[in-house]
Amino acid sequence: MSLAAYACHPARSRGRRHAEPPAPTRDAFQRDRDRIVHSTAFRRLVYKTQVFLNHEGDLFRTRLTHSLEVAQLGRSIARALRINEDLVEAIALAHDLGHTPFGHAGQDALNACMEGHGGFEHNLQSLRVVDALEHRYPQYDGLNLSFETREGILKHCSRANAERLEAGEPNGVARRFLDRTQPGLEAQLCNLADAIAYNAHDIDDGVRSGLVNVEQLGEVELFELYRREALAEYPQLEGRRVLYETIRRMLSAQVYDVIDATRAALETVKPADADGVRNAPPLVAFSETMQAQSNELKAFLFRNLYRHPQVTQTTDQAQQVVRELFEAYLERSAEMPVSYADRRDRHRAVADYIAGMTDRFAMREHERLTGRRGIA
Fold first, then answer.
1. 352-355 contact pairs (CB < 8 A, 24+)
2. 86-99: string of b/e by CB count within 10 Å (b at 16+)?
3. pLDDT tens-digit profile of 260-294?
4. pLDDT at position 55, please?
5. Structural domains of the chain in order of their starting residue, each with its CATH number
6. Nearest-CA neighbor of 203 among 269, 296, 265, 134?
7. Would the pTM of this model clear 0.85, i.e. be above it?
């Protein structure tokens, strides 16, 4: 399939921070994807969780399965839009590399610990992982990924951090947060595919956990519409098959909606190339109707799942584990590996070390350092 003019073409990539000769059998974005898959940080995602912690069940989503789902959705949409599938996959597989153990609870706790020391943003941490924290190659730190992949990984960034990044890399990946331009279509697509995947798998995991049920989900227009449609076609359907078929139809509807809405936006703007996309308004989006339905679903999940007393009790415990780990390593840096203990910026070294932990390693280290089991 030939790429559209507005896609990110690997031959026109803005390149790597450290120049390298091209690979004989792979283009720049395929090479990025392969480097991400072989990284240590990527392997750790299998034991980093989303909503439910690693010890709560074997079938709940992890950061790894979530990243694979985002990549699958992203590639499907990218193919229809004739944008770069390999770049979409690379961004999708790398977008959560900087996430802490214990999901957003760990991130919030680490950000609080780093108050006054630069804070903590998981998107920025993902960029730190691929730019500096992976140590695999003799010539440089990090994975030395292409500009376009790094641009997509840095999905959000505060102005203060953008200014700091810009000072070290003029006109680099943080520039768009200062001049209010957009990333390429592939990065925009990964952002939306991330949200689509979240909504679908949090419904599945929420029902599996018993914290929400199909009857409650009947309040949500997007879910109920496709549940009724599934039962109208398959009246004998029952149990988890109803849930799976409803989610499958929801996903398909959202994918087709994004394709149609984005094609319409592209037809209106007619960007001549990837830089034309960057200077246009956001182009990858839902229709207004689907966006409203998606927002309703997010609000439902926030009320009934993310703020469920059982979830908040566990996340409170997880935040305490992170805070106590941070304090322990700050006081006793020798408890960390030498590569972290010897760094001048002790606070950032501790944050980097904790952010790289899996759930189970963080719990094990907490018990070793405090003598207490932090999460029931």
1. 352/125, 352/128, 352/133, 353/329, 354/100, 354/101, 354/106, 354/110, 354/322, 354/325, 354/326, 354/329, 355/98, 355/99, 355/100, 355/106, 355/110, 355/120, 355/122, 355/125
2. bbbbbbbbbbbbbb
3. 999 999 999 999 999 999 999 999 999 999 999 99
4. 47
5. 26-311 (1.10.3210.10), 316-370 (no CATH)
6. 296
7. yes
